[in-house]
Amino acid sequence: MSDSSEALATHELRHHFENMEQQRGASSMGMWVFLITEIMFFGGMFMAYLAYRYEYFLAWQEGSQHMNFWIGTVNTAVLICSSLTMVLAVLAIQQGRRRLTSIMLAVTICFAIAFMVLKGMEYHEHWLAHEFPGPAFHFAGIDPRHVEMFFVLYFVMTGFHALHVLIGIGLVSTMLYMNERGHFSADYHNPIENTGLYWHFVDLIWIYLYPLLYLIGHHHVG
Amino acid sequence: MATASAITAEREHYLNADYGFRSWLLTTDHKRIALLYLITITFFFFVGGFFALLIRLELLTPQGDLVQADTYNKLFSMHGQVMIFFFLLPAVPAVLGNFLVPMMIGAKDLAFPRINLLSWYLFIIGGGLMLYTMLTGGVDTGWTFYVPLSTAYLGTHVVLAAVSIFIAGFSSILTGLNFIVTIHRMRAPGMTWGRMPLFLWSNYATSIIQVLGTPVLAITLALVGLERMFHLGVFNPQLGGDPLLFQHLFWFYSHPAVYIMILPGMGVVSEIIPCFSRKRVFGYEFVALASIGIAVLGFLVWAHHMFVAGISVYSAMVFSFFSYLVAVPSAIKVFNWTATMYKGKIYYSTPMLYAMGFIGLFTMGGMTGLFLASLGVDVHVTDTYFIVAHFHYIMVGGMVMAYLAGMHFWWPKITGRMYPESWGKLAAMTIFIGFNLTFFPQFILGWTGMPRRYHAYTPEFQVLNVLSTAGSTVLAVGYLLPMVYFLWSLRYGKEAGDNPWGAAGLEWKTASPPPTYNFEETPVVTWEAYNYDDLPKEVPVVG
Amino acid sequence: MFPNFPIWPVRAATSASNLDALFIFLLLVTGTVTLMIFILITLFALRYRHDLVDKPTPILGSLALETTWSLVPFGIFLIFFVWGAVLYFQERTAPPDSMEIYVVAKQWMWKLQHADGQREINELHVPVDRNVKLIMTSQDVIHSFFVPAFRLKQDVLPGRYTTLWFHAIRPGTYHLFCAEYCGTQHSGMIGSIVVMNPAAYEAWLSGGGGEGSLASTGQKLFQQLGCGSCHRSDTQGRGPNLVGVFSKPVLLEDGRTVVADENYVRESILNPGAKIVAGFKNIMPSFQGVVNEEQLLSLIAYVKSLQGSQQAEPVSNRPAVPNTSAQPRVK
Questions:
Q1: Domains present along chain C, CATH in parentheses
Q2: Does C159 touch chain A (CB under 8 A)?
Q3: Cis peptide bond upstream of C249, omega within 30
Q4: How many CA atoms are closer than 13 Å to the CA of B255, on its beta-carbon side?
Q5: B308 vs C56: CB contact, 8 Å cut-off?
Q6: Which long-range CB contacts under 8 A does B327-330 form with residues at least 24 apart?
Q7: Does a structural domain hold residue B40?
Q8: Which end of chain A has fewer beta carbons closer than 10 Å to its terminal beta carbon, N or C?
Q9: Residue among C41, C84, C152 whose CB faces B320 most closely
Q10: CA nearest to A31 within chain B
């Protein structure tokens, strides 16, 4: 470690840590533990979804045929790409390439916004088709009450996921801003790494939501 | 420690390092945050206790003549919600844990001091909303929020109460997260896992539960709120949902939450008994691993709250079996504490009296738990006063005794002052007697069939109810006493010195009250926990 | 024992006697261990008081002791577990010869219907020495049917049926409590179970309500609602023939098989699209909001009464014409 980076490192070392390594270890472990709590949070909804899928199988099948398969698929691709650019941003800052880091963070934000726009279009479609649960809900096929419940869980799960995407956009934007202000370097980039972990988690949740909501029922349509 | 007092007068420590509201409200010092929590939860303890007294007064007579049925339902609901979410859950972890975890491992602070402060603010916001709920009419769901009652039938502030608990839940999650990372990453050189005090092991186990369980409660309450506000069918059968799913999700958190409430208390007792027996705890490894065992097994027993709820016979059997399994580590702990006293040199100081009271009451709570884990017996006694007595023996007899034991044990460290020992002993005895008088009759009430949450009851239950109410007044006096003499000691108490009990543990190796960063220099640990063999055989301060 | 200070509830059913035996066993075992711990703590506290002991003896622990006090309690726990589980299993399995009584709970009363047509509110008359099975549901929130003298309790849920059975052994009047918090007047939702000698019970039966049996009420309703136009007792109906269906397995359109119990019949009336019998179309309208809980129970009692007592043979409950062009399969 050169003198200047050591000076920078001590500047970034918070008072209660012994050294940078301990600080980095603590902060990334903190992020992991936080993500475990997030998994448990979504886990409750996944349990509800699976329990009801077993109980009201026909309604669940019916419901997932009313998903927009193409928007769901494109959104999956968009999120996977955003994860890639996020990894590249972390890699770039590890090598100290600040400019590239900013570009990659910006691209990640663009993907995330694209995801939100597509999701919004999809919600709008459901709204027009009277598939939004509540008084306006209308469904002509079998077992409308439980199909409505499918949509309740669909909106709650994707809604909470979208909320996490929004928070992610906020975090990545903050990283972009801080990076432009020169906060990060090859020696200190913990926050970007943690933002990356968070972003991959958001992606991962979608990787589970996509097959559960879009694919299982779609298959049966044949 | 006569020489120390002159020095303490000028010495800078965490209490006098800075003055003014700002220095407290924006502090990131774990010790100051612990005191912020202490003030907050003490307030909520007396609010919840006030409700409890009104409940007991109402039950003096069978007719239900003191308050209306609605009011009574609000009283027991808010008693439960306040005591569980705003007193018991944070009591030992957020007050004593916050103060002691970094000191016991030889660190300057928790891993995330700002998150620690954030967690107190979340707690305050949650608590504020709970107060607002109470002042604007209250809530009468019970603490359990069972659907469809809560989502479709009650006209009270259900959503507000749920939001307040949701927010307080995140405070609990963040505390747990902070402890886990701190214990993993911030231990002083030489402080291996095998040398950690048992208080840390039990807080670590608690944190695992907080981190894994609380988010499930959060999403469950969120779904309840959505169902109630927008009529989105999730649990209500009229909208197509399944009310049993709610119970599963609720108890998936709320059973382990019982261990959030008792495990830290077990940790406190594991510190105090060795100190006042002047010897190492019997079977350290077993006591440590029992904490982890309880945390893990605790997640596999939730449906024992649902034996009569309409679940299948076979799943009930599985959950009954696991409930017996989780009783084994608790039994191990009780036996080990008892064995620690064998051939010791026992001092009857106030913390030790509380700790012995804890063992007794926790044993009775645990033993009656064995009745409840047995399927056939549970069918009869569940949802009766037997349950009420059982969990009060665990939570009040267990946790509150342990909390008070801990407060008396570490009060000299926290404030640098001694409380009056004879008053401490008197309070401990009063609480022990008052507690048994209040709650033992409730076992009999439950066994003879009095259901819980009854505003009015049939006349044959009156004698026992009167006994219980009489006991509760004794208990109330018992709880007020420490409040008074603790405050008194802040000004008039004797100087405590660094280690008035001659106790082992890093927290006793620094000054009382400790300096802002806990230690003048990072300690290096070369000894095992509870090395009382190397310490003086006498407790320096004997009451 | 003491009328105003009971310490042991009355024993009025076989389930109570069984449970009391286990409870006494538990009391003895846990009482002994608790007492042992109390005595040890007191003894140690007195014997090793600091001024009596010069120097504590360091003891690290003992693997043998730890193993003993882990395994021995676990062994004892296993006895508690098995004994309790056996009782629970018995409590949950009604003998086939039980007389059935339907219970509808609502905020804040119990409505009970006998098969013979008698209706009661907050009071249930049953004969001694008979197996009685309760089939229970709730109109609103969750309640719980609790009879301390029988040591029995079962939650009563909206939207489904739960059951409870007992065999009363002692005539008398016993408390019925709601044990699951159900709103404002929860503590007012109490009633009584009157266990009667057979003769007295017969007298009571002949004395009350003459509306005809529950099944006949159900039959009238079945006709009023026009159910019979599709659910005909031959094989030509647009809906499945209901004769002899009850408690038999039914093959569904999606390939699953369910047993036609109370919960299935209920769901088929309120939410016919949820489980369609193989070979039939989803054409039945929902009767959600059309029939109330008590009417539902009478319809179920009627369907139950169709156990091949009609002219049709039990085998004809399977649709005979599932694949003709007149019966296109549901997509």
A1: 9-53+94-212 (2.60.40.420), 214-317 (1.10.760.10)
A2: no
A3: no
A4: 24
A5: no
A6: B327/B366, B327/B369, B327/B370, B327/B373, B327/C73, B327/C77, B328/B293, B328/C70, B328/C73, B328/C74, B328/C77, B329/B289, B329/B290, B329/B291, B329/B293, B329/B294, B329/B297, B330/B290, B330/B294, B330/B366
A7: yes
A8: C
A9: C84
A10: B177
Directed axis angle between helix B113-135 and helix B158-185, to 10°?
160
| Angle at C202 (CA atoms; ends C197, C207), nearest 5 degrees | 125
Q: Which CATH architecture has domain A38-221?
A: Up-down Bundle (1.20)
Q: Tens digit of pLDDT for each residue in C174-192?
A: 999 999 999 999 999 999 9
Q: Please name the chains neighbouring C, where neighbouring means 3+ C-beta pairs under 8 angstroms.
A: A, B
Token pair recorded at residue C298:
């009478």
What does the block give as tokens for B521? 């220099």
Chain A hits for C252, Cβ within 8 Å: none
Tens digits of per-residue pLDDT, B31-42? 999 999 999 999
Tokens representing residue B515 in the block: 């300096």
Residue of B nearest to A41 (CA): B215
Q: How far apart are alpha carbons A99 and A108 in whole angstroms?
A: 14
Nearest to A63 by CA among A148, A122, A183, A6: A148
Residue type, B140: D
Interface of A with C (CB under 8 A): 56-59, 141-146
Question: What CATH number is attached to the domain comprising B377?
Answer: 1.20.210.10
Omega prior to B513 cis, within 30 of 0: yes
Residue B542 covered by a domain: no
Report which secondary-structure segment, H or E, holds B252: helix B243-277
Range of the domain at B473: 21-236+243-534
Inter-chain residue contact C282 with A146, CB threshold 8 Å = no
* Residues with Cβ within 8 Å of residue C194, at least 6 apart in sequence: C123, C124, C125, C126, C172, C173
Beta carbons of B215 and A43 less than 8 Å apart: yes
pLDDT in single tens digits along all 222 residues of chain A: 344 444 444 557 888 888 888 888 999 999 999 999 999 999 999 999 999 998 888 888 888 888 888 999 999 999 999 999 999 999 999 999 999 999 999 999 999 999 999 999 999 999 998 888 888 888 887 778 889 999 999 999 999 999 999 999 999 999 999 999 999 999 889 999 999 999 999 999 999 999 999 888 765 443
Nearest CA in chain B to A149: B233
Q: Is residue B460 part of a domain?
A: yes
pTM of the model: 0.91
